[in-house]
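WARN retry 2 of 3 for item q-0093 after timeout on previous attempt; input resubmitted unchanged.
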Amino acid sequence: MTPSLARAGILLATLCGLAAAVWAFDRTGLGEILAVAKRVGVGGFLLYCLYSLGVFAVLGGAWLASAPDEPVGRIGLFAWARLVREAVADLLPFSQIGGIVVATRLLAADGVAGARVYASLIVDMTTEMAGQLVFTLFGAALLVTIVSGGGAQTLRPMILSGAVAMIALMIAFFVAQRSLLGLATRLAGHVLPQSALAMEGVEAELRRIYGRRRAVLAAFLLNLVGWVGSAAGAWIVLRLMGVELSFRAALSIESLIFMLRSVAFAVPGAIGVQEAAYALIGPLFGLPAESALALSLAKRARDLAIGLPTLAIWQFGEGRALLRGLRPSRK
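OK item q-0093 returned
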């Protein structure tokens, strides 16, 4: 696929997503949605943001677990790289690849060995996908016990299709890991030209990490905790809005939303996909559409409140590094 064709595809996906978002808000009523969202309040919203940062600390721990022999004290660095990775993917028009490039550059620039950076990234992404698959299947099982009648029948094709797509993505990811190593090598050449990252070096590091089964299991469990923690955050927001919804129903809804976001990875920030999914899925669990879309708005606001300062700090650090590189040396 040529770059121009890829850009056209992303633009088309974005426009379709925006159309879906407009449909969801128009169908429900923007005024009613905003009225529910305002119940969170400034204090509640700040609490939600702080909670989300805690989830990123867990995800940073998962990436650190994927890089054995890195000291535990570096969890802050890995959590920061994970946060920047998410912010770039969600808020900049670079999709997931851009977030990966920036995050790996941060780790490598801070002294993490190049081979370990890229090998640990592959392990982290693999265990993250495995954790999401388990969480999705768990949510689907909860769906059967929560939703009865025609609602469950309506969701069944979507769940089965999404689960099959996720399993296919995981299989493709496992099979294509060698190709991903080649991609990592090329990224290293563009992002860190001075590094001598060799293909066999990354392969050896990847084999070594996979040989540390406890570390891989820890990465998987931490990523799974991250998925559950993110879903719990949605339940907290609903409680702050005064919306009564059982915790297990919130877990099931969020597992389906996460699944659809992953399958629709070509849409930047899952624009429209998330909103339309909430509008359709929420009512089946007894969650009014206006409350479901208010939750979606709270998530978008959280992404901006955390992501924009993150990008600003990252850019400030990049600027300082550039200035240090341009500053003439004194003999």
